[in-house]
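Consider a typical record:
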Amino acid sequence: MASLSFLLSILNWLLTLGVLIPGLVLTARARRTTGPAAAKAMVGCAVLLVNLLLAAGWSLVWRTGGSSFLRGTGIQDLPLAFGLYGLLHTILYCVGIGYLIAGVVGSSRAATPPYPPQQPYPPQQPYPPQQPYPTYPAG
């Protein structure tokens, strides 16, 4: 059952990579047209990509005997290590999503009319005065 969970983790990473890498490419290409808004979205994608690589690395370390690795680095308190990882993961996730939102909100511009505004009609000559309706004698 452990191998199934590992395969699902790999599938999750690949699907996320399949969104973030094209997102980086598209926002890099959109920088020419939308400017700083696309740059913010690109930073958001890059931060989320770093977060994904960190999560994948952390998971792979723990799949291959991570507790001995951490103890070899001098970290004796495993709950502290997990807490610091969780804090870093959360900060990177929030920063990445925040930059993506800033890029989307920053790209909204005032809607331009599809046609240029037209000039008002030129002044016209006044209408000639109307004659009163004729009255006919009763009869």
